[in-house]
Amino acid sequence: MKPRYSIFSLARNAMNYHKDWERAWRSPNPKKEYDAVIVGAGGHGLATAYYLAKNHKMTNIAVVEKGWLGGGNTGRNTTIIRSNYLQDPSIAIYELARSLYEDLSQDLNYNVMFSPRGVLMLCQTQHEFRAFQRTAHANRLAGLDCRMVTPQEVKEIVPIINDDPNCRYPILGAYYQPRGGTGRHDAVAWGYARGADSMGVDIIQNCEVIGIQREGDRVVGLETTRGAIKTRKIGVVTAGHVSTIMDMAGVRMPIESQCLQALVSEPIKPVIDCVVMANTVHGYMSQSDKGELVIGGGTDPYNNYSQRGSFPALEHTVAALVETFPIISRLRMLRMWGGIVDMTGDRSPIISKTPVEGLYVNCGWGTGGFKAIPGSGWVFADTIANDRPHPIAEPFGLNRFQEGRLIDESVAAAVAH
Ligand SMILES: Cc1cc2nc3c(=O)[nH]c(=O)nc-3n(C[C@H](O)[C@H](O)[C@H](O)COP(=O)(O)OP(=O)(O)OC[C@H]3O[C@@H](n4cnc5c(N)ncnc54)[C@H](O)[C@@H]3O)c2cc1C
Q1: 6: exposed, middle or buried (C-beta count within 10 Å: 0-12, 13-18, 19+)?
Q2: Atom of ligand 1 at shortest distance to CA of 342?
Q3: What is the pTM assigned to this prediction?
Protein backbone atom coordinates (compact mmCIF):
# COMPACT_ATOMS: atom_id res chain seq x y z
CA MET A 1 0.00 0.00 0.00
CA LYS A 2 1.10 3.54 -0.69
CA PRO A 3 1.62 6.04 2.15
CA ARG A 4 -1.49 8.17 2.63
CA TYR A 5 -1.62 11.74 1.38
CA SER A 6 -2.59 14.02 4.27
CA ILE A 7 -1.79 17.32 5.89
CA PHE A 8 0.86 15.47 7.94
CA SER A 9 2.58 13.93 4.90
CA LEU A 10 2.53 17.36 3.27
CA ALA A 11 4.16 18.92 6.34
CA ARG A 12 6.69 16.06 6.61
CA ASN A 13 7.70 16.37 2.98
CA ALA A 14 7.86 20.17 3.21
CA MET A 15 10.61 19.75 5.86
CA ASN A 16 12.70 18.03 3.21
CA TYR A 17 11.92 20.43 0.34
CA HIS A 18 9.50 17.89 -1.20
CA LYS A 19 12.37 15.68 -2.38
CA ASP A 20 11.07 12.44 -0.83
CA TRP A 21 7.64 12.04 -2.41
CA GLU A 22 7.17 8.53 -3.66
CA ARG A 23 6.20 8.03 -7.32
CA ALA A 24 2.40 7.88 -7.64
CA TRP A 25 2.62 4.71 -9.75
CA ARG A 26 5.33 2.33 -10.94
CA SER A 27 6.45 1.90 -14.52
CA PRO A 28 6.69 -1.89 -14.79
CA ASN A 29 7.63 -4.03 -17.78
CA PRO A 30 4.81 -6.26 -19.03
CA LYS A 31 4.69 -9.75 -17.54
CA LYS A 32 4.25 -12.77 -19.82
CA GLU A 33 0.75 -13.48 -18.52
CA TYR A 34 -2.08 -11.78 -16.60
CA ASP A 35 -5.53 -12.88 -15.39
CA ALA A 36 -7.02 -9.91 -17.26
CA VAL A 37 -5.72 -7.05 -19.40
CA ILE A 38 -7.50 -3.72 -19.85
CA VAL A 39 -6.65 -1.92 -23.09
CA GLY A 40 -6.64 1.88 -22.72
CA ALA A 41 -5.58 3.88 -19.65
CA GLY A 42 -8.25 6.54 -19.87
CA GLY A 43 -10.56 7.15 -16.93
CA HIS A 44 -12.83 4.22 -17.79
CA GLY A 45 -9.96 1.74 -18.20
CA LEU A 46 -8.22 2.84 -15.00
CA ALA A 47 -11.46 2.85 -12.99
CA THR A 48 -12.19 -0.67 -14.26
CA ALA A 49 -8.75 -1.85 -13.12
CA TYR A 50 -9.18 -0.14 -9.74
CA TYR A 51 -12.57 -1.78 -9.04
CA LEU A 52 -11.37 -5.17 -10.38
CA ALA A 53 -8.64 -5.05 -7.74
CA LYS A 54 -10.66 -3.43 -4.96
CA ASN A 55 -14.11 -5.04 -5.33
CA HIS A 56 -13.17 -8.38 -6.93
CA LYS A 57 -9.64 -8.96 -5.58
CA MET A 58 -8.27 -9.44 -9.10
CA THR A 59 -4.78 -7.97 -8.75
CA ASN A 60 -2.80 -9.96 -11.33
CA ILE A 61 -4.00 -7.60 -14.04
CA ALA A 62 -2.54 -4.95 -16.33
CA VAL A 63 -3.69 -1.80 -18.08
CA VAL A 64 -1.86 -1.25 -21.38
CA GLU A 65 -1.80 2.22 -22.90
CA LYS A 66 -0.33 3.28 -26.22
CA GLY A 67 0.52 6.80 -25.03
CA TRP A 68 0.47 8.24 -21.52
CA LEU A 69 -2.28 7.54 -19.03
CA GLY A 70 -5.14 10.04 -19.16
CA GLY A 71 -3.81 11.46 -22.46
CA GLY A 72 -6.94 10.57 -24.45
CA ASN A 73 -10.38 12.10 -24.00
CA THR A 74 -10.10 11.80 -20.24
CA GLY A 75 -7.49 14.57 -20.15
CA ARG A 76 -9.22 16.63 -22.85
CA ASN A 77 -12.78 17.11 -21.68
CA THR A 78 -14.63 20.02 -20.11
CA THR A 79 -15.29 17.96 -16.95
CA ILE A 80 -19.06 18.38 -16.66
CA ILE A 81 -20.68 15.92 -14.23
CA ARG A 82 -24.45 15.40 -14.11
CA SER A 83 -26.92 12.53 -14.22
CA ASN A 84 -30.15 14.09 -15.55
CA TYR A 85 -30.57 11.84 -18.58
CA LEU A 86 -33.95 10.79 -19.97
CA GLN A 87 -34.07 6.98 -19.98
CA ASP A 88 -34.10 4.82 -16.84
CA PRO A 89 -30.98 2.77 -17.73
CA SER A 90 -29.03 5.98 -18.32
CA ILE A 91 -30.23 7.58 -15.10
CA ALA A 92 -29.12 4.45 -13.22
CA ILE A 93 -25.54 4.47 -14.52
CA TYR A 94 -24.95 8.21 -14.53
CA GLU A 95 -26.41 8.61 -11.03
CA LEU A 96 -24.28 5.73 -9.74
CA ALA A 97 -21.27 7.58 -11.17
CA ARG A 98 -22.32 10.97 -9.79
CA SER A 99 -22.88 9.54 -6.33
CA LEU A 100 -19.48 7.78 -6.40
CA TYR A 101 -17.90 11.12 -7.37
CA GLU A 102 -19.22 12.62 -4.12
CA ASP A 103 -16.76 10.52 -2.05
CA LEU A 104 -14.16 9.71 -4.68
CA SER A 105 -11.42 11.91 -3.23
CA GLN A 106 -11.73 10.13 0.12
CA ASP A 107 -11.96 6.68 -1.48
CA LEU A 108 -8.88 7.24 -3.66
CA ASN A 109 -7.05 9.38 -1.09
CA TYR A 110 -6.49 11.73 -4.03
CA ASN A 111 -8.16 15.10 -4.47
CA VAL A 112 -10.22 14.85 -7.67
CA MET A 113 -11.61 18.34 -6.97
CA PHE A 114 -15.23 17.27 -7.38
CA SER A 115 -17.15 20.53 -7.26
CA PRO A 116 -20.96 20.13 -7.16
CA ARG A 117 -21.53 23.72 -8.24
CA GLY A 118 -24.73 23.00 -10.20
CA VAL A 119 -25.43 22.48 -13.89
CA LEU A 120 -27.95 24.67 -15.71
CA MET A 121 -29.26 23.54 -19.09
CA LEU A 122 -30.90 26.53 -20.74
CA CYS A 123 -34.21 26.33 -22.60
CA GLN A 124 -34.07 28.79 -25.49
CA THR A 125 -36.89 27.47 -27.68
CA GLN A 126 -40.36 26.14 -26.86
CA HIS A 127 -39.28 22.76 -28.20
CA GLU A 128 -36.30 22.64 -25.87
CA PHE A 129 -38.47 23.77 -22.95
CA ARG A 130 -40.90 20.89 -23.54
CA ALA A 131 -38.10 18.36 -24.02
CA PHE A 132 -36.53 19.33 -20.69
CA GLN A 133 -39.89 19.27 -18.93
CA ARG A 134 -40.25 15.69 -20.10
CA THR A 135 -36.78 14.88 -18.79
CA ALA A 136 -37.64 16.63 -15.51
CA HIS A 137 -40.69 14.39 -15.05
CA ALA A 138 -38.65 11.26 -15.82
CA ASN A 139 -35.92 12.34 -13.40
CA ARG A 140 -38.38 13.15 -10.63
CA LEU A 141 -39.90 9.67 -10.96
CA ALA A 142 -36.38 8.27 -10.64
CA GLY A 143 -35.79 10.30 -7.48
CA LEU A 144 -33.16 12.70 -8.85
CA ASP A 145 -32.67 16.07 -7.24
CA CYS A 146 -33.34 18.22 -10.35
CA ARG A 147 -35.86 20.94 -11.21
CA MET A 148 -37.01 23.41 -13.83
CA VAL A 149 -36.14 27.02 -12.98
CA THR A 150 -37.63 30.29 -14.24
CA PRO A 151 -35.73 32.93 -16.25
CA GLN A 152 -35.56 35.07 -13.09
CA GLU A 153 -33.93 32.22 -11.14
CA VAL A 154 -31.50 31.66 -14.01
CA LYS A 155 -30.45 35.31 -13.75
CA GLU A 156 -30.00 34.95 -9.99
CA ILE A 157 -27.83 31.87 -10.39
CA VAL A 158 -25.79 33.33 -13.30
CA PRO A 159 -25.88 37.13 -13.16
CA ILE A 160 -23.70 37.51 -16.29
CA ILE A 161 -26.25 35.78 -18.52
CA ASN A 162 -27.98 37.73 -21.29
CA ASP A 163 -31.61 37.98 -20.13
CA ASP A 164 -32.81 40.30 -22.91
CA PRO A 165 -36.27 38.92 -23.85
CA ASN A 166 -35.86 40.36 -27.38
CA CYS A 167 -32.59 38.62 -28.24
CA ARG A 168 -32.45 35.92 -30.94
CA TYR A 169 -32.95 33.04 -28.51
CA PRO A 170 -34.37 34.44 -25.23
CA ILE A 171 -34.06 32.31 -22.09
CA LEU A 172 -37.43 30.67 -21.36
CA GLY A 173 -36.19 28.79 -18.31
CA ALA A 174 -33.63 26.10 -17.54
CA TYR A 175 -33.29 22.59 -16.27
CA TYR A 176 -31.14 22.58 -13.12
CA GLN A 177 -29.23 19.85 -11.30
CA PRO A 178 -27.79 21.49 -8.17
CA ARG A 179 -25.55 18.48 -7.28
CA GLY A 180 -24.06 18.31 -10.78
CA GLY A 181 -20.80 20.14 -11.37
CA THR A 182 -17.22 19.52 -12.38
CA GLY A 183 -14.13 17.56 -11.33
CA ARG A 184 -10.46 17.72 -12.23
CA HIS A 185 -10.08 15.30 -15.16
CA ASP A 186 -6.34 14.57 -14.84
CA ALA A 187 -6.76 13.98 -11.12
CA VAL A 188 -9.48 11.40 -11.77
CA ALA A 189 -7.11 9.46 -14.03
CA TRP A 190 -4.15 9.91 -11.68
CA GLY A 191 -6.16 8.99 -8.59
CA TYR A 192 -7.47 5.77 -10.12
CA ALA A 193 -3.99 4.96 -11.47
CA ARG A 194 -2.37 5.44 -8.07
CA GLY A 195 -5.10 3.44 -6.35
CA ALA A 196 -4.89 0.55 -8.82
CA ASP A 197 -1.09 0.53 -8.77
CA SER A 198 -1.03 0.40 -4.97
CA MET A 199 -3.08 -2.82 -5.12
CA GLY A 200 -0.59 -4.39 -7.54
CA VAL A 201 -2.10 -3.55 -10.94
CA ASP A 202 0.58 -3.03 -13.63
CA ILE A 203 -0.05 0.14 -15.63
CA ILE A 204 2.08 -0.12 -18.74
CA GLN A 205 2.37 3.06 -20.78
CA ASN A 206 3.86 3.41 -24.27
CA CYS A 207 2.53 -0.05 -25.02
CA GLU A 208 0.25 -0.12 -28.05
CA VAL A 209 -1.97 -3.11 -28.73
CA ILE A 210 -1.39 -4.22 -32.32
CA GLY A 211 -3.15 -7.58 -32.35
CA ILE A 212 -5.59 -9.76 -30.40
CA GLN A 213 -4.93 -13.49 -30.41
CA ARG A 214 -7.84 -15.91 -30.59
CA GLU A 215 -8.11 -19.66 -30.37
CA GLY A 216 -11.42 -20.44 -31.99
CA ASP A 217 -14.10 -18.40 -30.29
CA ARG A 218 -12.06 -17.21 -27.32
CA VAL A 219 -9.23 -14.76 -26.70
CA VAL A 220 -5.89 -16.05 -25.49
CA GLY A 221 -3.65 -13.01 -25.61
CA LEU A 222 -2.52 -9.72 -27.04
CA GLU A 223 0.26 -8.52 -29.35
CA THR A 224 1.73 -5.24 -28.19
CA THR A 225 4.63 -3.04 -29.21
CA ARG A 226 6.33 -4.32 -26.02
CA GLY A 227 5.80 -8.00 -26.79
CA ALA A 228 3.08 -10.65 -26.51
CA ILE A 229 0.97 -10.99 -23.35
CA LYS A 230 -1.09 -14.08 -22.56
CA THR A 231 -4.49 -13.58 -20.98
CA ARG A 232 -7.98 -15.07 -21.11
CA LYS A 233 -9.83 -11.83 -20.31
CA ILE A 234 -9.45 -8.61 -22.29
CA GLY A 235 -11.44 -5.43 -21.65
CA VAL A 236 -11.22 -2.94 -24.52
CA VAL A 237 -11.78 0.65 -23.33
CA THR A 238 -10.23 2.80 -26.04
CA ALA A 239 -12.94 5.37 -26.92
CA GLY A 240 -12.43 6.63 -30.50
CA HIS A 241 -10.06 3.77 -31.32
CA VAL A 242 -12.40 1.01 -30.24
CA SER A 243 -13.42 -0.05 -33.77
CA THR A 244 -9.83 -0.58 -34.90
CA ILE A 245 -8.96 -2.69 -31.86
CA MET A 246 -12.13 -4.77 -31.92
CA ASP A 247 -11.48 -5.35 -35.60
CA MET A 248 -8.25 -7.14 -34.54
CA ALA A 249 -10.51 -9.74 -32.87
CA GLY A 250 -12.94 -9.82 -35.79
CA VAL A 251 -15.74 -7.91 -34.02
CA ARG A 252 -17.42 -5.07 -35.92
CA MET A 253 -18.54 -2.12 -33.76
CA PRO A 254 -21.51 0.22 -34.35
CA ILE A 255 -19.33 3.25 -33.62
CA GLU A 256 -18.35 6.40 -35.50
CA SER A 257 -15.29 8.36 -34.40
CA GLN A 258 -15.37 12.14 -34.50
CA CYS A 259 -13.33 15.02 -33.13
CA LEU A 260 -14.90 17.04 -30.29
CA GLN A 261 -13.17 20.31 -29.53
CA ALA A 262 -12.83 22.53 -26.47
CA LEU A 263 -11.00 25.71 -25.54
CA VAL A 264 -10.10 27.90 -22.57
CA SER A 265 -9.87 31.67 -22.22
CA GLU A 266 -7.23 33.69 -20.46
CA PRO A 267 -7.79 33.61 -16.66
CA ILE A 268 -10.08 36.24 -15.17
CA LYS A 269 -11.63 36.93 -11.75
CA PRO A 270 -14.56 34.66 -10.78
CA VAL A 271 -17.59 35.49 -12.95
CA ILE A 272 -19.59 32.25 -13.01
CA ASP A 273 -19.89 29.64 -10.28
CA CYS A 274 -21.96 26.97 -12.02
CA VAL A 275 -21.91 25.15 -15.37
CA VAL A 276 -24.15 26.56 -18.10
CA MET A 277 -25.09 24.59 -21.20
CA ALA A 278 -26.78 26.55 -24.01
CA ASN A 279 -27.71 23.78 -26.37
CA THR A 280 -29.73 25.73 -28.94
CA VAL A 281 -27.06 28.30 -29.75
CA HIS A 282 -24.65 25.57 -28.95
CA GLY A 283 -21.94 26.21 -26.42
CA TYR A 284 -21.28 25.43 -22.77
CA MET A 285 -19.15 27.16 -20.20
CA SER A 286 -17.81 26.97 -16.66
CA GLN A 287 -14.87 28.59 -14.88
CA SER A 288 -11.85 26.69 -13.67
CA ASP A 289 -10.19 27.29 -10.32
CA LYS A 290 -7.40 29.07 -12.19
CA GLY A 291 -9.96 31.51 -13.59
CA GLU A 292 -9.99 30.29 -17.20
CA LEU A 293 -13.39 29.97 -18.84
CA VAL A 294 -13.71 26.37 -19.99
CA ILE A 295 -15.71 26.25 -23.21
CA GLY A 296 -17.02 23.46 -25.42
CA GLY A 297 -19.25 23.05 -28.44
CA GLY A 298 -20.33 20.28 -30.83
CA THR A 299 -18.54 17.50 -32.66
CA ASP A 300 -17.04 17.91 -36.11
CA PRO A 301 -19.77 17.15 -38.67
CA TYR A 302 -17.74 14.35 -40.30
CA ASN A 303 -15.88 11.27 -39.07
CA ASN A 304 -12.18 11.72 -38.35
CA TYR A 305 -9.33 10.82 -35.99
CA SER A 306 -8.11 14.37 -35.32
CA GLN A 307 -7.15 15.66 -31.88
CA ARG A 308 -6.74 19.30 -32.88
CA GLY A 309 -8.83 22.44 -32.74
CA SER A 310 -10.12 24.14 -35.89
CA PHE A 311 -11.17 27.70 -36.75
CA PRO A 312 -14.77 26.92 -37.84
CA ALA A 313 -15.50 25.19 -34.50
CA LEU A 314 -13.87 28.04 -32.60
CA GLU A 315 -15.89 30.67 -34.44
CA HIS A 316 -19.20 28.81 -34.05
CA THR A 317 -18.76 28.07 -30.35
CA VAL A 318 -17.46 31.49 -29.35
CA ALA A 319 -20.25 33.23 -31.31
CA ALA A 320 -22.82 31.16 -29.39
CA LEU A 321 -21.30 32.04 -26.04
CA VAL A 322 -20.87 35.74 -26.77
CA GLU A 323 -24.59 35.79 -27.49
CA THR A 324 -25.30 34.08 -24.16
CA PHE A 325 -22.68 35.95 -22.08
CA PRO A 326 -22.00 39.32 -23.76
CA ILE A 327 -19.33 40.26 -21.18
CA ILE A 328 -16.90 37.72 -22.64
CA SER A 329 -16.79 39.40 -26.05
CA ARG A 330 -13.37 40.98 -25.50
CA LEU A 331 -11.76 37.99 -23.81
CA ARG A 332 -8.76 36.35 -25.43
CA MET A 333 -8.78 32.60 -25.98
CA LEU A 334 -5.70 30.82 -24.69
CA ARG A 335 -5.62 27.35 -26.20
CA MET A 336 -7.79 24.83 -28.02
CA TRP A 337 -7.65 21.09 -28.57
CA GLY A 338 -9.72 18.08 -29.66
CA GLY A 339 -10.42 14.49 -28.62
CA ILE A 340 -11.59 11.51 -30.66
CA VAL A 341 -15.03 10.63 -29.33
CA ASP A 342 -16.81 7.34 -29.95
CA MET A 343 -20.39 7.88 -31.07
CA THR A 344 -23.19 5.29 -31.10
CA GLY A 345 -26.42 5.78 -33.05
CA ASP A 346 -28.53 6.18 -29.90
CA ARG A 347 -25.90 8.27 -28.06
CA SER A 348 -25.72 5.72 -25.25
CA PRO A 349 -22.67 3.69 -24.25
CA ILE A 350 -21.85 0.04 -24.88
CA ILE A 351 -20.80 -2.01 -21.81
CA SER A 352 -20.85 -5.56 -22.99
CA LYS A 353 -19.63 -9.07 -23.42
CA THR A 354 -18.95 -9.85 -27.08
CA PRO A 355 -19.42 -12.86 -29.37
CA VAL A 356 -15.77 -13.72 -28.59
CA GLU A 357 -15.37 -15.44 -25.23
CA GLY A 358 -13.20 -13.49 -22.79
CA LEU A 359 -13.45 -10.28 -24.82
CA TYR A 360 -15.38 -7.40 -23.21
CA VAL A 361 -15.95 -3.88 -24.48
CA ASN A 362 -16.75 -0.56 -22.85
CA CYS A 363 -17.15 2.38 -25.24
CA GLY A 364 -19.63 4.70 -26.94
CA TRP A 365 -19.45 7.34 -24.21
CA GLY A 366 -19.08 9.88 -26.97
CA THR A 367 -19.22 13.47 -25.81
CA GLY A 368 -20.31 12.67 -22.26
CA GLY A 369 -18.28 9.93 -20.62
CA PHE A 370 -16.18 11.84 -18.10
CA LYS A 371 -19.16 12.09 -15.76
CA ALA A 372 -19.65 8.33 -16.00
CA ILE A 373 -16.13 7.15 -15.14
CA PRO A 374 -16.68 5.81 -11.59
CA GLY A 375 -20.00 4.10 -12.41
CA SER A 376 -18.74 2.68 -15.68
CA GLY A 377 -15.59 1.28 -14.06
CA TRP A 378 -17.67 -0.20 -11.23
CA VAL A 379 -20.11 -2.11 -13.47
CA PHE A 380 -17.56 -3.08 -16.13
CA ALA A 381 -15.23 -4.55 -13.50
CA ASP A 382 -18.15 -6.58 -12.17
CA THR A 383 -19.03 -7.71 -15.71
CA ILE A 384 -15.46 -8.87 -16.40
CA ALA A 385 -14.95 -10.52 -13.02
CA ASN A 386 -18.22 -12.51 -13.17
CA ASP A 387 -18.41 -13.02 -16.94
CA ARG A 388 -22.01 -11.74 -17.06
CA PRO A 389 -23.39 -8.23 -17.38
CA HIS A 390 -23.83 -6.27 -14.16
CA PRO A 391 -27.58 -5.45 -13.85
CA ILE A 392 -26.91 -1.74 -14.53
CA ALA A 393 -24.74 -2.63 -17.56
CA GLU A 394 -27.20 -5.15 -19.00
CA PRO A 395 -29.34 -2.71 -21.06
CA PHE A 396 -26.15 -1.34 -22.65
CA GLY A 397 -25.21 -4.64 -24.35
CA LEU A 398 -24.12 -4.85 -27.98
CA ASN A 399 -27.21 -6.96 -28.65
CA ARG A 400 -29.47 -3.90 -28.37
CA PHE A 401 -28.48 -2.91 -31.91
CA GLN A 402 -29.60 -6.29 -33.26
CA GLU A 403 -32.79 -6.27 -31.22
CA GLY A 404 -33.69 -2.63 -31.98
CA ARG A 405 -33.81 -1.93 -28.23
CA LEU A 406 -32.12 1.45 -28.43
CA ILE A 407 -31.63 3.82 -25.48
CA ASP A 408 -32.18 7.14 -27.19
CA GLU A 409 -30.31 9.93 -25.43
CA SER A 410 -29.77 12.29 -28.35
CA VAL A 411 -31.52 15.16 -26.53
CA ALA A 412 -30.10 14.58 -23.06
CA ALA A 413 -26.58 14.16 -24.49
CA ALA A 414 -26.95 17.92 -24.98
CA VAL A 415 -24.24 18.31 -27.60
CA ALA A 416 -24.97 18.55 -31.33
CA HIS A 417 -23.63 15.57 -33.27
C1 LIG B 1 -13.37 18.19 -25.95
C2 LIG B 1 -14.12 17.20 -25.13
C3 LIG B 1 -15.01 17.63 -24.15
C4 LIG B 1 -15.72 16.71 -23.39
N5 LIG B 1 -16.49 17.17 -22.37
C6 LIG B 1 -17.08 16.30 -21.53
C7 LIG B 1 -17.78 16.77 -20.38
O8 LIG B 1 -17.85 17.96 -20.12
N9 LIG B 1 -18.36 15.85 -19.58
C10 LIG B 1 -18.32 14.53 -19.84
O11 LIG B 1 -18.91 13.75 -19.09
N12 LIG B 1 -17.61 14.04 -20.90
C13 LIG B 1 -16.99 14.89 -21.74
N14 LIG B 1 -16.28 14.43 -22.81
C15 LIG B 1 -16.24 12.98 -23.09
C16 LIG B 1 -15.24 12.28 -22.20
O17 LIG B 1 -14.02 12.94 -22.21
C18 LIG B 1 -15.04 10.85 -22.70
O19 LIG B 1 -16.29 10.20 -22.90
C20 LIG B 1 -14.24 10.02 -21.69
O21 LIG B 1 -13.11 10.71 -21.27
C22 LIG B 1 -13.83 8.71 -22.33
O23 LIG B 1 -12.92 8.09 -21.49
P24 LIG B 1 -12.24 6.73 -21.94
O25 LIG B 1 -11.45 6.25 -20.79
O26 LIG B 1 -13.28 5.84 -22.51
O27 LIG B 1 -11.35 7.15 -23.19
P28 LIG B 1 -9.93 7.85 -23.29
O29 LIG B 1 -9.68 8.77 -22.15
O30 LIG B 1 -9.84 8.45 -24.66
O31 LIG B 1 -8.93 6.65 -23.14
C32 LIG B 1 -8.74 5.69 -24.15
C33 LIG B 1 -7.28 5.34 -24.16
O34 LIG B 1 -7.07 4.25 -25.06
C35 LIG B 1 -5.78 4.40 -25.58
N36 LIG B 1 -5.60 3.58 -26.78
C37 LIG B 1 -6.14 3.79 -28.02
N38 LIG B 1 -5.70 2.84 -28.87
C39 LIG B 1 -4.88 2.01 -28.16
C40 LIG B 1 -4.12 0.86 -28.48
N41 LIG B 1 -4.10 0.35 -29.71
N42 LIG B 1 -3.39 0.26 -27.50
C43 LIG B 1 -3.40 0.76 -26.23
N44 LIG B 1 -4.09 1.86 -25.88
C45 LIG B 1 -4.83 2.48 -26.82
C46 LIG B 1 -5.71 5.90 -25.87
O47 LIG B 1 -4.37 6.34 -26.01
C48 LIG B 1 -6.41 6.50 -24.66
O49 LIG B 1 -5.52 6.88 -23.64
C50 LIG B 1 -15.56 15.32 -23.63
C51 LIG B 1 -14.68 14.88 -24.61
C52 LIG B 1 -13.95 15.80 -25.35
C53 LIG B 1 -12.99 15.30 -26.39
Answers
A1: exposed
A2: 19
A3: 0.97
